[in-house]
Amino acid sequence: MLDRETFLVDDFVGGLWKVKETRKAARLVIEPFGPLPESDRGALLGEGERLVHFVGDGAEAFEVRFAQGV
Fold first, then answer.
1. CA gap 13, 23 in Å, rounded
2. What pLDDT digit, counting tens, does each position of 25-64 carry?
């Protein structure tokens, strides 16, 4: 997997995301390029929850968050 992946908002690249895994935890960090409407933030969090549980299969803890300052 690349260091970071991109996500789309309204057919344009809206930011980056990265999964960080340890033996017991999986964390998805979302880094938008700019402010996002609440509806887009909610959609990203929902998709992120599904993704981090899929990628972090076997982890005991899961977290999805936006990067600090966003």
1. 31
2. 999 999 999 999 999 999 999 999 999 999 888 899 999 9
- The one-letter amino acid code at 24 reads K
Q: How many CB atoms lie within 10 A of CB 12?
A: 7
Q: How many domains does the chain have?
A: 1
The token pair at 13 is 């690249």
Task: State which residues form the domain around 36.
Answer: 5-66
pTM of the complete model beyond 0.70: yes
